[in-house]
Amino acid sequence: MEAPTKAHWGAVKQILRYLKGTIDYGCRYSKGTELKPVLLGFSDSDFAGDIQDRKSTTGIVYFLGGNLITWASQKQKIVTLSSCEAEYVAAAAACQGVWLSRLIGDLLGTKEAPVKLFMDNKSAIALSKNPVHHDRSKHIETKFHFIRECVEEGKVEVEHVGTADQLADIFTKALARARFQEMRRAIGVDRVHQA
Asked: pTM to 2 decimals?
């Protein structure tokens, strides 16, 4: 194990300063007015964001009735060859949305509803909707084609969202302060009490 560098200590200090400055923050939840709350997911990825191993980072976030219920940021286990592939691999996180939809259906005693998954890469959306394997997608591991199967079976509806409205963006890369604060508010994280 190598010794921490000055850059590592700088990152640790930055994290500690952030935690100290956000101690009063938490998730805000509001009562919905919908009879049947809608499950919405956002999936995003950077492309080769890790400068050492060139692996991408997946960010996912799910809302139920406009309230944040789960989120994740995780380095992908494979090196992808394009931004389309990185986004497509990130979309395999739809399995969590399918599970959530099934759980909600069981809890409410209703049929599981399709999950709406928003992505900002039109090529990855086309790949998820097209059952024909293209030469460009043959190398993608079979497990990542789960999203395509879910779309074919009507369990997931994939839709485009502009990059400016991609709520999972906050989980994939460092953002400028104003953009970070805007995204943090958009996902429902806000000051919950005064210090």
From this structure: 0.84
